[in-house]
Amino acid sequence: MMWRSRTARAGAWAKARLPEGVAGIARLHELVGAHLSEDADPGLVMVGIETDRGPWVSALVAAGYRVIAVNPMQAARYRERYSTSGVKSDAGDAHALADMVRTDGHQLRAVAGDSELAEAVKVTARAHQTLVWDRTRAAQRLRAALVEYFPVALVAFDDLTAADALELLGRAPVPAQARRLTVAAISAALKRARRRDIAEKTRKIRAAFGTDQLPVPAVVSVAYAATVRAQVAILTTLNAEIARLEEAVADHFGQHPDAEILRSQPGLGPVLAARVLAEFGDDAGRYTDAKARKNYAGTSPITRASGKKKIALARYARNRRLADALHQQAFCALNASPGARGYYDTIRARGTGHHAALRQLANRLVGILHGCLKTHTLYNEAISWPQKVTVDVAV
């Protein structure tokens, strides 16, 4: 890690490359101590770093320094002040970050002091979400392979990540083998997957496997079968690990004091609520008002004004994990809350698209959540959705 500082007392720059771990932190404290008096407040030290988590961040916060997690996009734009050629180096990045926190530190947000339990929720919730995204990618690869040589399998199975689909594709990855699957074998796989309407689903799968399709050379079909078996094994493992992590997420989240408030929000189940808590954090002083929370969530629109032209646009520079969770919450809230449904329908009636309407609904839900957390009260449908509600407009 590169470290660079500008000292007011010496009027000079000091720099060093620090190793990871305890040795690096100790060396950093020595460098800082060389420029501070023994009775100086550690809060006078400002540290710019392009991450908001990890052992280094925890150690810096514990030392009492003011740690500012700089968004990599902000750092990249700031770096352009020094060079327009696109040159990049660790030393140059350290110089830019040091200058950035020195001159613009008052405009940057310091790392929040989240509780240890919130950090545990963040670790498990992010790991769970990452595995879900990995499963989606693996399922898309499996689908792409089936389209090439075994397209009728996509008719037989609605969900390629389901246990019955993975079991049957693992046993019969080529069309000839699939056609020989018996009713008993298919029914048994459906039972193990705890499916309903087993007889009807078995008939559908058998009919799909018996459908004619364009022939594929046998040797090519065998090669595709090997790739399908590999993807099936990956998806099976991912399903098992996602289930285990989901239990860990629920366990940590259930211990948090704000869990009941978050679970009371419409559209938030245990997993989504844990993700929202993980990304927002639980530092009571992090968001000064509902607008600050909405801005961090990326649900509030941004305004672009030039001359007489003024438009409101969606905010796409945001926390992707949080945005994904809030979008899902808004969609689920359509059935869980009459007020949310009415708000969404009002926006749609004005000609706004589905996703834009969900984004505006999510923005409203973030404001409601902020109020509930601030007052330590559970969600109330009547209070949250009065007769007349202002509808934000963004394109």
Element layout with pairings:
Blueprint: E1 2-6, E2 13-17, H1 21-33, E3 46-49, H2 55-62, E4 66-69, H3 72-79, H4 90-104, H5 116-149, H6 152-156, H7 163-171, H8 175-179, H9 183-192, H10 198-209, H11 218-254, H12 259-264, H13 270-280, H14 290-297, E5 302-306, E6 309-313, H15 320-336, H16 338-349, H17 354-375, H18 381-384
Parallel strand pairs: 3-4
Antiparallel strand pairs: 1-2, 5-6
Helix pairs in contact: 5-11, 5-13, 7-9, 7-11, 9-10, 11-13, 13-15, 14-17, 15-16, 15-17, 16-17
Q: What is the averaged pLDDT score? A: 87
Distance between the termini: 42 Å
Query: Based on CA inertia axes, which overall geometry fits?
Result: globular
- Class from helix and strand fractions: mainly alpha
Main sheet characteristics: 2 strands, antiparallel
The residue fraction in helices comes out at 55-70%
Q: List how many beta strands DSSP finds.
A: 6
Structure in words:
The chain has 395 residues and is mainly alpha-helical. The protein folds into three domains: 110 residues, no CATH class; 135 residues; 126 residues, no CATH class. It is 60% helix and 7% strand. The protein contains 18 helices and six strands. A two-stranded antiparallel sheet has the order 1-2. The protein has a two-stranded parallel ribbon with strand order 3-4. Helix 2 links the parallel strand 3 and strand 4. Helix 11 packs across helix 13, helix 14 crosses helix 17 and helix 15 crosses helix 16. The radius of gyration is 27 Å and the shape is globular. About 2% of the residues have low confidence.
